[in-house]
Amino acid sequence: MTSPGPLVAITPNLALDRTVRLDRPLRRGALHRVRNLRELPGGKGVNLARTVRALGGDVVVAGFLAGWNGAKLRELLQDERIAGVFEEVPGETRECHAILDDGAHPTEINEAGPEVPQQAWERLLGRLPAGTAVLAGSLPPGIDDDAFGRLVAGLPEPPVVDMSGSALATAVSAGVAMIAPNRAELAALLGRASASIDDAVAYYGAHGVPVLLSLGSEGAAYLADERWRVRAPEVDSTNPVGSGDCLLGAFLWARARGHDVADALRWGVAAGADNARRGGGGNVEAEGIRALYETTQAEEAS
After folding, report:
1. Exposed, middle or buried by CB within 10 Å (0-12, 13-18, 19+), for 191?
2. Which of 33, 106, 144, 250 could be joined to 98 by an S-S link, Cβ 3.0–4.6 Å?
3. pLDDT at position 105, please?
4. 86 neighbors 45 (Cβ within 8 angstroms)
5. How far apart are CA 140 and CA 147, in angstroms?
6. What is the torsional sign of CA 168, 173, 178, 184?
7. Given this model, what pLDDT does residue 302 score?
8. What is the rounded CA–CA span in Å between residue 40 and residue 301?
């Protein structure tokens, strides 16, 4: 699952993430005022990269940039000292909005992103550094499942995949090292209304693909030949968006440093919880992750 070199977070549908906190609960058709606004480079791979970098690991973000938003995103990543390999495409990098109104979960509004032709994919993948590849997030318009599957199969080593829907199913068919779904994404992969740890165990038994299963506020589980679960520490969650990305980033960082699966899962759950309490979007700090790590325990998942 890990190779010499950096973690390479291939994020096909990069975004400018705008987190908006309103002055009152969201109500359809009403005027709302913004109490505060945070704008950051976004996409699952960017949140993963922030986590790896916060922990002192080596990571590169790869993806497609377009238009003024793309130029802004590049500069914002440089400000965060996150290295990138990017391919320019026509159009405009998308914006994704998370609207906070003191509800239980943010309201999310995500644009589709610019169209990316297959030739741009081939150029990008041909420029990637050697390392552990992670395919993270949604696919932009412009490529069908068959072409995407061929690109995945053509990678030097099977990637770790944190995607959903047909993209996840296609990647699995092409060959992957591990998948990192949440319950809803695993259920969709199985064609069911819901999914559990037992379903992940059965999936591994049928396909031989290890599953790092995010359980949200309940923690996470790793299901393969080894089966572990870590329950999330209690935190005051202000925005959980991106916690699954942080879980995967810290898990892979720990595995690359030689930690066993159970210990890596503790690091991952701690990073997800730290993100949730700091406002989401990959907003983690090494000291916070380490403090939460010390409060976790791994138990065998039955």
Report:
1. exposed
2. 106
3. 75
4. no
5. 13
6. positive
7. 73
8. 36
Query: Average pLDDT of the chain?
Result: 94
Structure token pair of residue 197:
């740890």
User: What residue type is assigned to position 71 of the chain?
Assistant: A
DSSP character for 182? Answer: B
CB of 160 closer than 8 Å to CB of 191: no
Mean pLDDT of 273-282: 92
What DSSP element (H or E) covers 161?
strand 160-162
Q: Supply 183's token pair.
A: 């319950």
Tokens of 216: 């949200």
Amino acid at 199: D
Q: How confident is the model over 72-115, as pLDDT tens digits?
A: 999 999 999 999 999 999 999 999 998 988 766 788 899 999 99
Quick one: tokens of 73?
A: 């995103």
**How far apart are the C-alpha atoms of 209 and 166, rounded to whole Å?**
17
Q: Give the count of alpha carbons within 13 A of 138, CB side only.
A: 16
199-240 pLDDT tens trace: 999 999 999 999 999 999 999 999 999 999 999 999 998 888
Report DSSP state, residue 216. Answer: G
Question: What are residue 38's DSSP bridge partners?
Answer: 19
Phi, psi of 85 (to 5 degrees): -125, 115
DSSP designation for 5: S
Token pair listed for 205: 């038994």
Rounded CA-CA distance 56/290 in Å is: 12
Please provide residue 290's backbone torsions phi and psi, each rounded to the nearest 5 degrees: -65, -40
Q: Amino acid identity of 85?
A: V
Domains and CATH numbers, the chain: 7-300 (3.40.1190.20)
The residues that bridge with 133 in the sheet, in sequence order, are 8
> In degrees, to the nearest 5, what angle opens at C-alpha 197 toward C-alphas 191 and 199?
35
Q: Report the half-sphere exposure of 176 (CA within 13 A, side-chain side).
A: 24
Quote the crossing angle between the two packed helices 197-207 and 183-190, to the nearest 10°: 50
